[in-house]
Amino acid sequence: MIKKILIANRGEIALRIIRTCHEMGLQTVAVYSTVDRDSLHVRFSDEAVCIGPPPARDSYLRFDRMIAAAEVTGADAIHPGYGFLAENPDFSAICQDHHIKFIGPPPETIRMMGDKSYAKITMKEAGLPVIPGSEGIVRNISDGRKSAAEIGYPVIVKATAGGGGRGMRIVWSEEDFAHQFETAGSEAEASFGDGSLYVEKFITGPRHIEIQILGDGKGNVIHFGERECSIQRRHQKLLEESPSPIVDADLRSRMGEAAVNGATAVNYEGVGTVEFLLDDDRKFYFMEMNTRIQVEHPVTEEVTDCDLVEYQIRVAMGEEVEPREIRLDGHAIECRINAEDPFNNFAPSPGTISAFHPSGGHGVRVDTHVYSGYEIPPYYDSMIAKLIVRSRTRELAIQKMIRALDEFVIEGVSTTIPFHQQLMLNEKFRAGTFDTSFLDSFKLERVGT
Ligand code: MV4
């Protein structure tokens, strides 16, 4: 039984998790670095433990301090949120060793899915379509070049320890292969301590679509439809929506079935996301599986009327997932509000928020840890709020988002609000015909004073 949960995270997601815990009658323990002392997750939790100085490696990434904080407060579970320790198999294992329930999959599943080449082999065996490429990792340039010649150029070289766009190189021709392969390998070695690479066909202008799933580790897996995540800049998503404007009921059911089959094959426990690329012919391919709750989970919650954090906690308590079809109703859009200057290459804009007025009204949800007078520390990521709207159709959701963005007041720092305001008026966005390269050519106009 779980009675008290330690939230091994900060910011909006820590607050998001605390809210569900309290609705479920569960006690909460916040952890914080010294710079987060005045954060709302500290104020809204039942207890709070300081775990160290501002740099994450000295606080939010410290296994020993998380476990000690759980032990001194008597927490029987740890929710990792996203980022930090969420997909660290060793942390999941340490929690197990200390008889603290890690809210997420067991270490073996996290490790398997963290090895992107191995995950791809596993999903191919489960019958999911995968992008044509090398059978697993390639040992050297010569094997890689052979593989690339069979696949046909352009190819993409990916680090098996990478993911989310880190440690990838596109190779356009055979002459360029050796150089790109070596660069990718040394980058991967430096970043992940593992230089292993695999090769696959490069799909030009794909859409990034992901399926939300839930498993109970007892063989039951269900899906919650898709999220459209193609609006991204340098692998940072800026806007997500559900449903995807390009996915119809038939494609949703086929992608959902594939995701469920993949998760079932690994006896998945917890919430997870199966990422797919969709090509010009609307063929889909498995890309990666994420074993955490994701930043963009609220759009799925809004169209399915499900609390995904509640499901995480319930399966962690041993509850079974009842097999059923989840219906999507209406349309939800999430804009990530970052303390960044969209007119200056999205440079981080830390500082003190002098005035903060979140949007409200029917169909508007703001997930944030920020308030008037809040000082954004420079140590962590720059997302300060998620603005989520929900309406009956995509067109109405866009109209509501325009209204909600107009109403949102944030003074003292630059934010991505002006970017989203212009995106909402963009023809290609409104038509729903964009792909992952859309933002490469999106030109922000300088307006106002
Ligand atoms: C690809 C791809 C095209 N073909 N794989 C991006 C995130 C990471 N999970 C994998 N990603 C991609 N994988 C194949 N076989 C396109 C992307 C991709 C991308 C690649 C290079 C530059 C920008 C990109 C933006 C979105 C997706």
Walkthrough of the structure:
This protein is of the alpha+beta class and 449 residues long. It has three domains: 4-103, Rossmann fold (3-Layer(aba) Sandwich); 132-201, Dna Ligase, domain 1 (2-Layer Sandwich), CATH 3.30.1490; 207-440, ATP-grasp fold, B domain (D-amino Acid Aminotransferase, Chain A, domain 1, 2-Layer Sandwich). The chain is 33% helix and 27% strand. It has helices spanning 11-23, 40-44, 63-73, 89-97, 107-114, 116-125, 141-151, 174-192, 249-265, 297-304, 308-316, 394-407, 417-425, 427-431, and strands spanning 4-7, 27-33, 47-52, 77-79, 101-102, 155-163, 166-171, 197-201, 207-216, 221-228, 232-233, 236-237, 239-242, 269-278, 284-290, 331-338, 340-341, 347-348, 351-352, 355-357, 364-368, 375-376, 383-391, 409-411. Helix 4 packs antiparallel against helix 5 and helix 12 (394-407) packs antiparallel against helix 13. The termini are far apart. Ligand MV4 binds at residues 131, 156, 163-165, 168, 200-203, 206, 208, 235, 277, 287-288, 436.
